[in-house]
Amino acid sequence: MKKKIVVTGGTGYIGSHTAVELINEGFEVILIDNLHNSESIVAERIGEITGINPHLEVFDLCKRKKVRSFFRDNPGISAIIHFAAFKAVGESVNKPLEYYRNNLVSLINLLEAMKESGIPSMVFSSSCTVYGQPEKLPVTEDAPVQPAISPYGNTKQIGEEIIRDTIAATQGMKAIALRYFNPIGAHPSGLIGELPRGVPENLVPFITQTAIGLRDELKVFGDDYDTPDGSCIRDYLHVVDLAKAHVIAVKRLLSQSHKNNYEVFNLGTGTGVSVLEAIKSFEKVSGLKLKYTVTGRRAGDIEKIWADPSLANRELGWKTESSLDDAMKTAWEWEKNIRNKFKSS
Ligand code: WQD
Fold first, then answer.
1. What does the alpha-carbon distance between residue 345 and residue 342 come to, in Å, rounded to a whole number?
2. Does residue 339 carry a pLDDT above 80?
3. Among 6, 157, 176, 224, which residue has the least CB neighbours within 10 Å?
4. How high is the pLDDT of residue 233?
5. What is the distance between the alpha carbons of residues 315 and 173, in angstroms, rounded to a whole number?
6. Is pLDDT at 345 greater than 70 in this prediction?
7. Sign of dihedral through CA atoms 11, 14, 17, 18?
8. Is residue 76 a contact partner of residue 53, using CB atoms and an 8 Å limit?
9. Which residues contact 323 (CB under 8 A, 6 or more apart)?
C-alpha cells in the first residue's frame, strides 16, 4: 500500500516540485491549495511529468470546519508537508493582519486536525529569514533566531514555535522544520516552475522577466555592502534539490526507528553568491547581456547569508546536486516556456 502524503500549497512553486519527487518515490499525493497564488493546471502538469495525476482539493485551510471534515473523510494519511502560506515580504509589511491570519490560522487548523485524526507527522516550510543577519557565517541551526524584519518572517518564526510546543505536548507527533535559503530554477521538463503574479520581488524571476522583455531593467539593490563586489550575498539552491529534501524528511518521520520528535535543518548549498555573480551566471547560460543598473539598498535586506548545510548533509544524507548555472538555465528555460506554452485556460 502506498503511503498517503498531503501537500498543502501543492500547486505552488516548491509544493509542485515536491509532489513530483514524492510521486517518483512511490507515495500517493493529495494536493490541497486554495489557488490564491497558483493555477489548477499545475496538478495536471505534475501528472504529465510523473504519469500519475495527484488528487487536488481546492479549499482554504483557514476554514476550520472544512479542514476537519477533509481529514475525517480522508483517513490513512501518513504525513503532511505544509507549504501553503502567503510569502511576499514587502506585501506582508502593508498587510500584517492578513499574513498573520492566513499563515497562522491555517497552521493551527492543520495541527488540530492532525491531533484529531491521529496524523503523526508534519514537515514545515520554514525560512532562513529566522536568522536575520547572523553574526557567524556560514549559519548553523544553532544560530540565534533574531527578531523578524517582516510580518512574513515573523509568521515563520511563530509557526516553528507553535509546532514545537504542539509536538512537546502531543504524544506520538513528530515534525521537521526545513529552513530554506533561496530556492531558484524550475523542473528540467519545463512543465512546472515559479509563476509570480505581477512584478516579482525575487531576484531570479526579475532577471528572467527582464531578459524576456517584460521588465525594462533589473535594479541591483546596492553595491556598497561589506562584500567582495559590494552586492548582497545569498545561498541560491535548485528547487528540485530542495524538493528532494522534503521526501527524505518525510521518510525520516515515517521511519519507526526515528526518535527525535522535533528537528530543524538548514537547506542550502553552503556557498554564498552575490547579486552580481548571479547576473553573470544568467548571462553565461543564456548567452544574453542583461540590462541592469545599480540603485540604492532595499529596506530590510540582509547583507550576507549562506547556509552551513552540514547537519542536513550528515543526518538526512542530503546535499544539493545542481550548480548555480544549472539552476539558472532551468529558470531561463521556464521563463521562455511560460510565454510560449503555459496556458492556464
Ligand atoms: C535576493 C538578492 C536583493 C530583486 C527571499 C525571500 C524571503 C526568504 C529568503 C523564504 C537580495 C537582490 C532582488 C531585485 C536585487 N525566503 N535583488 N534586485 O531577499 O534573500 O529573500 O529569500 O522565506 O522570504 O523573499 O531574496 O530574491 O528578494 O533577493 O538586487 O530586483 O537579490 O537585494 O540581495 P531574499 P530576493
1. 9
2. no
3. 224
4. 98
5. 20
6. no
7. negative
8. no
9. none
**Residue-wise pLDDT tens digits, 126-137:** 999 999 999 999
Q: What is the mean pLDDT of the chain?
A: 96
The single-letter code of the amino acid at 107 is L
Residue 16, pLDDT above cutoff 70: yes
Q: What is the largest CA-CA distance in the chain?
A: 57
Q: Which three cell numbers stand for residue 291?
A: 540590462
Considering the chain, what percentage of its residues have pLDDT values greater than 90? 94
Please identify which residue in the block is written with the cell numbers 520581488: 201
| Helix (H/G/I), strand (E/B), else coil: 130 | helix
Q: Which atom of ligand 1 is nearest to the CA of 182?
A: 22
Return all residues near 33 (Cβ < 8 A) that are at least 6 apart: 8, 9, 10, 11, 12, 15, 40, 56, 57, 58, 84
Exposed, middle or buried: residue 293 (CB in 10 Å: 0-12, 13-18, 19+)?
A: exposed
Residue nearest to atom 3 of ligand 1 (CA): 221
Let me know if 13 is a catalytic residue. no
DSSP codes, 167-235: HHHSTT-EEEEEEE-EEE---TTSS------SS--SHHHHHHHHHTTSSS-EEEE-S-SSSTTSS-EE-
Does the pLDDT at position 342 exceed 80? no
Q: What is the CA radius of gyration of the chain?
A: 19
Q: What is the pLDDT of residues 205-255, one digit of tens each?
A: 999 999 999 999 999 999 999 999 999 999 999 999 999 999 999 999 999
Question: If we measure between CA atoms, which residue out of 303, 237, 316 comes closest to residue 269?
Answer: 237
Pocket test for ligand 1, best of 298, 302, 304, 328 (most atoms within 8 A of CB): 298
